[in-house]
Each structure stands twice: as structure tokens, then as C-alpha cells.
């Protein structure tokens, strides 16, 4: 019998990710690509990228179990099961650090606060998927305004000597406010620090919504923004625990972990049934 592999595929609104686990739960393949206009094709491309160089498997149909998650999870027709990204982020973080009890997930177009139980299941959650304020999409717009990339946002805010007040929670109005501040010659670094603090306040609202219990961590692409994490720690008087695996991959890691558990359970039941027969 050849190697057995399990896959989790997270089709996000901005980026799509995949992780492949072997029978021992070791990560043997991973990928992260920009989400295209066709979610099904994006999922095939994402999983295909994670499969490159992996011996013993040539086609998506050969996975022992595959779980789809994320914004476009219902557009992954070949998945054995679709699981909400909230459950997958909780399980992914639990796999990396079982001590984490609270998560703030800043995704491409929503923000979530998640309370995690001792077994990695979700105790409670709050989210806002009706507004892009404080999300990855919001930061992308800010990057265009300031003519920097995402790492540049963090580097720029670190140079601030004061923090400009960004009062609007609406993406459109916040961008107008930022343009006005820059036009009035406020230093870009101070404006950027104001952006970080504004988003941090929004994140803190979601954390408080589920109850802040240590350990606390952040997931999603915005978790790579050190300036945002610093602002959240300062405003909330909390400590954000870093993860040893890319925080943007937590959804697909959780999906892959669920896939491995389900696949192994089904295999054991099948083996038991055959033995009884």
C-alpha cells in the first residue's frame, strides 16, 4: 500500500491556501496563491501547487480525505466535506499551540473573534462580514494610497513619532480621512500608525465579543503585520502569541487536520467491518 495523504484547501476572498498532511500528521506540501475569479479552478491550482514534488500521488482524487473551507468552500465540488473557516481556524491554531484560547482572525474581507475550547473546537465567535473596514482589502487600499507594499505598512508605522487619529470605521470614509491628513502634511509614518491603531481598536472589539482569555493569537494574512500586532497589544494591554507556522495557513491546516481525523476514522471503521465480516 502506498502513502496516504490528507488535504485541506482554504479558498479565501483574497488568497487561497492548501496544506497536505501524511498519515503521521506531518506537513508534506503547502501552497498560497491569489484567489482567481473561478473558485473551483483556484482550488485545483492551489492543491496542484501543494502537490508538486510529492511522491505517490498524482491526482486530487487520490487523497484519502479532502476538506474544503473558506469563503469559496462550497465551490470545491471534489471535496469530501466542507467545513466553516471558523472551525478550521480554531483547529489549525489548536494543532500548532493547544494552549491558545482566543483568536482574532483578520481575513481578506472580514474580521472574526473566536473562543477556542481545550479540544480545538469553537466555544463562541463573533464576526463582521458586511464591511471591509480593518480587513486585508482595506490594507490593500491603504497600500495603494501610500505607494507601499504590505511589509512597508508595518515598517512605516514603526517610524512614527506620534499617532494620527483615524476616526472613521468605514473603509471609504477612512481613506478620505487619510488623504486629507496627508494633504495637510501630516507625516506618512504618523498617519500609518493611526491606521494601525484604528484597525487594532476594531480587532479588540471582536476579541471582547467572545471574551479575552489567554493565550491570544492572530490569524490571517494581516497577522504578518507587526505594526498591527504592536498596536493591538498596546491598546488592549494584551500579549499576542506568535505561531510557529504561517498564520495565513491556519484555515487550511485546520481543514487538513479535520480531513486526517475523518479519513483515519473511516479507514478504521472500514477495516473493522471487513474483519467482522
What's the quick description here?
This protein is an alpha/beta fold and 277 residues long. The chain has helices spanning 39-51, 85-96, 136-146, 150-157, 171-183, 188-210, 226-236, 250-276; strands at residues 5-11, 15-22, 27-34, 65-69, 81-82, 102-106, 111-116, 122-128, 216-219.
Describe this structure in words.
It is built from eight helices and nine strands. The protein has a five-stranded mixed sheet with strand order 3-2-1-4-5. Strands 8-7-6-9 form a four-stranded mixed sheet. The longest helix has 27 residues. The radius of gyration is 20 Å and the shape is elongated. The chain starts with a strand and ends with a helix.
Q: Which terms would index this structure?
A:
277 residues, alpha/beta, Nucleotidyltransferase, domain 5, five-stranded mixed beta sheet, four-stranded mixed beta sheet, 8 helices
Strand and helix map with partners:
Blueprint: E1 5-11, E2 15-22, E3 27-34, H1 39-51, E4 65-69, E5 81-82, H2 85-96, E6 102-106, E7 111-116, E8 122-128, H3 136-146, H4 150-157, H5 171-183, H6 188-210, E9 216-219, H7 226-236, H8 250-276
Helix pairs in contact: 2-8, 4-6, 6-7
Amino acid at each position: 500500500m502506498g502513502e496516504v495523504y490528507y488535504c485541506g484547501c482554504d479558498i479565501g476572498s483574497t488568497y487561497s491556501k492548501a496544506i497536505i498532511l501524511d498519515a503521521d500528521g506531518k506537513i508534506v506540501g503547502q501552497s498560497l496563491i491569489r484567489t482567481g475569479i473561478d473558485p473551483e479552478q483556484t482550488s485545483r491550482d492551489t492543491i496542484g501547487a501543494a502537490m508538486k514534488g510529492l511522491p505517490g500521488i498524482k491526482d486530487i482524487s487520490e487523497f484519502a480525505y479532502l476538506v474544503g473551507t473558506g469563503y469559496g468552500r462550497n465551490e470545491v465540488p471534489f471535496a469530501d466535506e466542507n467545513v466553516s473557516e471558523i472551525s478550521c481556524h480554531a483547529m489549525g491554531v489548536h494543532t500548532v499551540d493547544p494552549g491558545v484560547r482566543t483568536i482574532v482572525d483578520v481575513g481578506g474581507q472580514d474580521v472574526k473573534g473566536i473562543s477556542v475550547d481545550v479540544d480545538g473546537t469553537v466555544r463562541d465567535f463573533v464576526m463582521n462580514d458586511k464591511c471591509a473596514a480593518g480587513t486585508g482589502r482595506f490594507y490593500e487600499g491603504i497600500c495603494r494610497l501610500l505607494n507601499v507594499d504590505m511589509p512597508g505598512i508595518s515598517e512605516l508605522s514603526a517610524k512614527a513619532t506620534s499617532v494620527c487619529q483615524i476616526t472613521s470605521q468605514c473603509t471609504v470614509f477612512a481613506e478620505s480621512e487619510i488623504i486629507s491628513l496627508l494633504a495637510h502634511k501630516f507625516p506618512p509614518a504618523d498617519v500609518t500608525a493611526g491606521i494601525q491603531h484604528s484597525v487594532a481598536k476594531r480587532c479588540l472589539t471582536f476579541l471582547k465579543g467572545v471574551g479575552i482569555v489567554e493565550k491570544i493569537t492572530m490569524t490571517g494574512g494581516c497577522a504578518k503585520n507587526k505594526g498591527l500586532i504592536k498596536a493591538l497589544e498596546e491598546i488592549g494591554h494584551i500579549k499576542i502569541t506568535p505561531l510557529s507556522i504561517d498564520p495565513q495557513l491556519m484555515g487550511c491546516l485546520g481543514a487538513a487536520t479535520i480531513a486526517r481525523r475523518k479519513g483515519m476514522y473511516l479507514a478504521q471503521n472500514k477495516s473493522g467491518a471487513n474483519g467482522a465480516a
